[in-house]
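The material for today's practical consists of a large collection of protein records. There is nothing in a record beyond a sequence line and a structure line. As an example, a complete record with its sequence and its structure tokens follows:
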Amino acid sequence: MFKLLSKMEDAAQSSKGDFAKFGIVIIFMIVVLILSYNSMGGLPTNAFLVIAALFGAYMAMNIGANDVANNVGPAVGSKALTLGGAIVIAGIFEAGGAFIAGGDVVGTIKKGIIDIDAFGGDADSFIWAMMAALLAAGVWLNVATKFGAPVSTTHSIVGGVMGAGIAAGGFSIVSWGTMGKIASSWVISPVLGGIIAALFLFSIKKTMVFKEDKVAAGKFWVPVYVAIMTWAFTTYLTLKGLKKIWPDIVDILVFLPDEKKPSFAIAAIFGLILAAIVYLLLSKRIAGKKDLANTRHSINALFTIPLIFAAALLSFAHGANDVANAIGPLAAISDAVSSGGIASKAAIPLWVMAVGALGIVVGLALYGPKLIKTVGSEITELDQMRAFSIAMAAAITVIIASQLGLPVSSTHIAIGGIFGVGFLREYLQDHKEVIKLEDEERKIEKEENKLEQYRDNLQELLDLPDDRKDKKVYKEIGKLYDMLEKEEKVLEEELRVRESIQKKKYVKRDAFKKIIAAWLVTVPVAAIFSASVYFMIRGMML
């Protein structure tokens, strides 16, 4: 009875929390309604823009709930950040990235996957298609978050735009070459991220963890690794986070080359300058530390502050880039409503940017913890060194891919990095486990030989004629039965130990399979649902 009451009380508390979250969502949606309605100016009220604004807000909240976890999840899983601290940092830097570096203009068709000329200037069909894309992508992200699967929001909106585009203009409207590149990122992103994260972790282990004097090794190598991180993140942030406002930066810093976007050379030079400064400051600071113990834990602790900076910078870059997933179609609809035409690029009204930026923050705060926990602890166990390696992989993979022209997904890179460090742990542990397994096999063989010998001895005594079985023989038979029972228990325990060694895995296979499956179905599921929504809207309007 008491257990039942306790369960009912827990359910009531959970319901109260869900109701409070729902209330905040409703308030946010009302604010979006007011913003979109007031944005009309002298134009007659257009219901499509109001509804599209709600879809955009819904999409933005789901980006916050799902995608942002990749930036802060490893830091939380490694205990470098608390869950609350991660949400605050990510919220501030996501919004900052969106508002500061989100740009004034956005591509209305994500990644150029459909040909807008195929709409033939039909603004209504275009508006319906963008609305369907937003709703479909948002619903898929919502479902993925519910099941604890981190998926690519870029791929979600790509699937939505593709599905609605096909519904509106047929299969010829899709740029299949572009879709092929996007599909290739399903393999390129996690593999590159996993390899780079594993290489960094292995390097850290070889240069510090496996050394006899870990303190001396840490004082020498930690500033080197953090300087490399500084270079990577400065380069990454310049290339990806500042590209939309680069002309404004060039106007202020007149000594920079007059280019529309930063080149790799300029970004790398910025990175080298900051890396050198960080190396000098950190070397001096760590050299003065007297309380470092000669343990792995002490080395781990030295990566805590760099991890917090990494989470913040990844969030800033994500806000600058991925806010377009929510506001791109919404900006396109706003432009089409106000101009009556279809443009490949659209100016972003302030209210549209606010919907995207604030929506990401609201979604992160209310529903982000589930995916943050999944990314941080439910795939593999993370500490600061492993999380640092994942953050490095996120930055360096994007730099390499951008220079080689390879399509990559930040979500897939981060999760690939987690898989990479987990599988590396399994690989390194396997060498130790092989020795354990060989010892265990020898023990098992020894026990099996003993049992066989006891059984043979027992059988010999049992086969004796009755006239030769005296009291001494029967006593020996009883003794052999006891010894057999004892040795069978010992053998059973040794077999159990062997099985546990063989089954020991550092990457949870169920999580691995679930995430890979979600990645593979993201584009087709979003496309099918988007096409269905488009036909529903079209049927209602015609």
DSSP finds 17 helices and two strands in the chain. The mean pLDDT is 84. The first strand starts at residue 105 and ends at 107.
